Amino acid sequence: MNPFTYRDNLLYAEEVSCSKLAGTYGTPCYVYSKACIQDNYQAFADALQDWPARICYAVKANSNLAILNLLAQLGAGFDVVSGGELERVIRAGGDAGKVVFSGVAKRSDEIRRALLAGIYCFNIESQEELDRIESIAKEMGIPASVSLRVNPDVDPSTHPYISTGLKDNKFGVEIDQAWELYQRIAGSSHLHAVGVDCHIGSQLLDLAPFRACFEKIFELVDRLHGQGIQLQHVDVGGGLGIPYAPADVAPGPREYAQVLSSFMQGRQLGLVVEPGRAIVGQAGLLLCRVEYLKHTSQKNFALVDAAMNDFLRPSLYSAWHEISPVCEEDGDEVLYDVVGPVCESSDWFGSQRSLRIRQGSLLAVHDAGAYGFVMASNYNSRMRPAEILVDGDQAWLIRKRESVEQLFADEIIPG
Asked: The whole model's pTM is what?
C-alpha cells in the first residue's frame, strides 16, 4: 500500500494532512504509517505460511520503541546487532526468546546479557567469537544456542557499502570453515547448534543472488544432516529491496518465497527471515521546509531545514529518494538541487529535481522509514528531529524533538 497520497493538492499520511503534522510538530520530522508497517509485515507472514517461519525484524532499520512495540504485537521476532538493540526490544515488549543476535564484534558484556535474557540464538561470525561465547556460557552455566553465519561468496549486485556476502567482506565464516566449526560445536557441552545463517547484502532488487546463496547454504545443511548434525532452522537473512527510484522494480515477499520453496520443500526445517527495509522503508517520509531558494549562474538550490545529520542515505550511498511538495503549488517547474544547512558539499537530498516551490514550502522526502532516524547524529550541534506515527486520522508523537539541553546533558567541563 501507499499510505502517502494527494487530496485536493495536499499530501496526506493515511488520513492526516502532512501540512498539519508539520504545523503541529515542526520540521524536520519523520512521519510513519502504522497501516503500511502492518501490511508489509503481514505480506511476509502470508508468503511464508507454508513453513514454520519466524520473521525477525532487523532492528537496525528503524529502532523506535513504538515501531518495535507494534511489530511485537504482530508476533515478530527481532534481529539485533548490539546490546543496545536488545535492550530496546525488551523495553518495547518484545520477546527475548524470539531474538537472534547478529554482528561481527559482540562484546563479552553483550553476550552475558543476551544469555541472561534468554535469546533464541547467536549468529556466529568467526571462530574467535565462538571461542568467547563458549567460554562465557561455561562460566555462567547457561548453554548457548548458536547458528553460524556462512559467507557464501555471492555477489548481491548492490551498493558496495551494503554488500555482505563476498569473501572480502568482514561478515561470516567461509563454508569450508563452517563445516569444521559445526563439528566442534557438536562436541561441546556448552554450545548447541540450532541453525545456519546467511545474509548477502541489503537493497537487493534481483532474486538471482538469493537463489545462488540458498543453493550453497542448503547444500551445507544436507552435508551436516548426512553427518548426523540436525539443525532446527535455516536463517536466510534479509536484504529484499524496495523501489526507491521510478525505474526500480522490486520483488515482493511472495516472489521471494517462491524462490525459497524449491529449497524448503520436503525438509523438516524451520525458517528464519530478517527483513527490515522491506517492512518500514516505504512506511516513512521526512518532512522539511524550504528556508531559501538560491539561484546561481550554474544551479538553483532549494535550501531546506533538514540535513545529512537528519537523513544520511543520500550523502552516504548517493541514494535516490523521491522529493515532492507537500502542497502542489502553481507556476512553472524549476530544476533544483535540494540541499541542507550542514557545512559539507555532500549535504544534499536530491540533484536536479523538477519542483514547483517557493520559500517556505514544505517538502516530503519519501521512502525514509528505514535507515533514517537510526543514522541521525548531532553533527554541527543540530538537534535530532521528532518522529510521528500516524494511525488513520490520529497522529502520535513517538519521539520528541531533541532539545538544546539534551545536546549538552552528558558533557562535563572539568574544574
From this structure: 0.94
- 503541529: which residue's cell? 24
Among 369, 371, 401, which residue's Cα sits nearest to residue 385? 401
**Max Cα distance, the chain (Å):** 74
Please tell me which residue in 18, 288, 327, 343 is annotated as part of the active site. Answer: 343
Cα gap 405→393, rounded to integer Å: 33
Cα 149 vs. chain centroid, distance in angstroms? 18
Q: Are 253 and 48 in contact (CB under 8 A)?
A: yes
The yes-or-no answer on residue 343 being catalytic is: yes
* Chain mean position to CA 361: 30
d(CA 363, CA 328): 10
Per-residue pLDDT of the chain (415 residues; tens, 9 = 90+): 799 999 999 999 999 999 999 999 999 999 999 999 999 999 999 999 999 999 999 999 999 999 999 999 999 999 999 999 999 999 999 999 999 999 999 999 999 999 999 999 999 999 999 999 999 999 999 999 999 999 877 655 544 443 443 445 566 788 888 888 999 999 999 999 999 999 888 888 989 888 888 898 999 999 898 888 999 999 999 999 999 999 999 999 999 999 999 999 888 899 999 999 999 999 999 999 999 999 999 999 999 999 999 999 999 999 999 999 999 888 889 999 999 999 999 999 999 999 999 999 999 999 999 999 999 999 999 999 999 999 999 999 999 999 999 999 999 999 9
C-alpha cell at 26: 515542526
